[in-house]
Specification:
With 372 residues, this protein is mainly β. It folds into 2 domains: 257 residues, TolB, C-terminal domain (Neuraminidase), CATH 2.120.10.30; 88 residues, Immunoglobulin-like (Sandwich), CATH 2.60.40.2550. It contains no helices and 31 strands. A 4-stranded antiparallel sheet has the order 1-24-23-22, with no helix packed on it. Strands 2-3-4-5 form a 4-stranded antiparallel sheet, with no helix packed on it. Strands 6-7-8-9 form a 4-stranded antiparallel sheet, with no helix packed on it. It is globular, with a radius of gyration of 21 Å. It starts with 15 loop residues before the first strand and ends with a strand.
C-alpha cells in the first residue's frame, strides 16, 4: 500500500489508495494519533501525540501547524465550529475554535486518566471519550459540562482505546488494546455493559463508521484495518493491509474516503470506499426493509422489496449477537413481500432483525417488544 502525506483526489475505484504529488517541502506529520475531517473547509485535522500539535491538511495537501499548545494530544473530533482534543499531560479535553485555533475552554477531566479516542452523538450533543484504564467520560458540548459515565474498573477492559456510538440501538462499543471482549454499553444506563465477543486480535487503537454503519477498527498488532458489519452483527473482514502501526481513523462522508494514520512512519493513507452496500449485494438488491409496529406487543410485520429474485432469510439476535431465531424464506421473486413474526418468535426487550440475500446481510433493523 502506498503512503501519502498530503493531497488526495477522488475517483470511482473501490479501496484505492492515492499517491499524488506532494505539496510541501517538510512533512509535519509526526507520530499521528487522531484524525478528523471538517467538511466546510474540506480539511483534515491530525494530532501529533508526542509533539502535542494539531496539524491541518487542506484540500490541496498544504500542511500547517494549527495548534501547538498541548502535551500528548490523542483523540480529536470536529463538532460544529469547534475541535475537541483529548490529551494526557495534563489530563484534559480542550475545545478550540476551528477558524483561528483560539482556546474556547477546557475540561480538566478530574477522575478520568489516560483519555484516548472519542465519538459524538449529534442527537443530544454528547461526546464520549474512552479512558485507557477502562472507563468512559461524557461531555455535554451544549452546556460545557462533563460526567464520569463509566467509572474506571467497573465493566470495561483495562487498555480500552476507542469508542463507537451506535444511535440505532443506543449503545456504545468499546475496543481495547489487550486481548479482551469488545464491550457494549447502554447510552441510557451506563451500568448495562455486555461482553459482545472476543475478536482474537490485539492492540486496537481507533475506529470510524461509514454511511452504511459499517465499523472500521485499526490494529497495531497486525498493521491492518478491520471492517465489521453494522451493530457488530457478523464477522469482521480484513479491509486494508500493510499499514505502519495504524492509529487514528476518520471517515469523510461526502467523498467516501477513509483516512488511516500511520504512527509508525508518519504518513496517512486515504482509501476510497465503495458507496452504498457492497457491490456483491447489489444484484439482487433491496429497495425497502421496514418493521412495524414500533414497539411490538404481539406480532411484527416485516416488508421488503426485491429488485430481483433471491434466496432470503431472516435472523433475530440479541445485543450480545447471540442468535435467537432464524427464518429461511427460500428463493423469493422480484417485488414486494410481507412476512409476519409471531409473538412466540420475538424475544422481549431490544433485539436486532437482519435480512440476508444470497447469504449476505444487507440490512438490520431494531426490534423492541414490550409486555402487554
Amino acid at each position: 500500500m502506498k503512503r501519502i502525506y498530503f493531497f488526495y483526489f477522488f475517483c470511482g475505484f473501490a479501496l484505492a489508495v492515492f499517491s499524488p504529488q506532494l505539496r510541501s517541502q517538510v512533512n509535519l506529520i509526526d507520530k499521528p494519533e487522531g484524525i478528523c475531517y471538517y467538511e466546510p473547509q474540506r480539511a483534515w485535522y491530525v494530532t501529533n501525540v508526542e509533539l502535542g500539535q494539531v496539524i491541518r491538511i487542506d484540500s490541496l495537501g498544504n500542511q500547517s501547524v494549527f495548534w501547538d499548545g498541548i502535551n500528548l494530544a490523542m483523540g480529536i473530533e470536529a463538532i460544529g465550529d469547534s475541535l475537541y482534543i483529548s490529551s494526557n499531560e495534563p489530563y484534559r479535553v480542550s475545545c478550540l475554535s476551528i477558524h483561528d485555533s483560539a482556546l474556547i475552554y477546557y475540561l480538566p477531566t478530574t477522575g478520568v486518566y489516560a483519555v484516548s479516542h472519542m465519538d459524538y452523538d449529534s442527537r443530544f450533543g454528547l461526546l464520549y471519550i474512552v479512558n485507557q484504564y477502562g472507563g468512559l467520560m461524557r461531555v455535554n458540548v451544549l452546556n460545557r459540562s462533563y460526567q464520569i459515565f463509566v467509572p474506571t474498573g467497573t465493566g470495561l477492559a483495562n487498555g480500552s482505546q476507542t469508542v463507537i456510538v451506535d444511535t440505532i440501538v443506543n449503545r456504545l462499543y468499546v475496543f481495547s488494546w489487550p486481548l479482551a471482549y469488545v464491550r457494549s454499553v447502554s447510552m441510557t444506563d451506563s451500568t448495562d455493559i455486555i461482553n459482545l465477543f472476543s475478536p482474537g486480535i490485539t492492540e486496537f487503537i481507533s475506529s470510524a463508521t461509514d454511511d452504511e454503519g459499517n465499523i472500521y477498527v485499526s490494529s497495531w498488532a497486525t498493521n491492518r484495518v478491520y471492517k465489521y458489519p453494522p451493530h457488530l452483527i457478523g464477522s469482521s473482514e480484513v479491509f486494508s493491509v500493510d499499514h505502519a502501526k495504524p492509529s487514528g481513523l476518520a471517515y469523510n462522508p461526502n467523498d467516501g474516503v477513509l483516512a488511516v494514520c500511520n504512527y509508525g512512519d508518519n504518513t496517512i493513507d486515504f482509501i476510497q470506499l465503495i458507496t452504498g452496500i457492497d457491490a456483491t449485494y447489489n444484484d439482487p438488491g433491496l429497495f425497502q426493509f421496514n418493521i412495524f409496529p414500533v414497539p411490538v406487543v404481539h406480532h411484527a410485520t416485516i416488508t421488503f422489496d426485491l429488485k430481483d429474485s433471491a434466496p432470503v432469510h431472516l435472523t433475530i439476535t440479541n445485543l450480545a449477537r447471540q442468535n435467537l431465531y432464524s427464518l429461511n424464506l427460500g428463493t423469493m421473486p422480484m417485488g414486494q413481500h410481507v412476512v409476519t413474526l409471531h409473538e412466540s418468535d420475538i424475544p422481549e426487550g431490544i433485539s436486532m432483525v437482519t435480512l440476508f440475500l444470497n447469504n449476505h446481510p444487507v440490512d438490520t433493523k431494531q426490534l423492541v417488544k414490550i409486555p402487554e
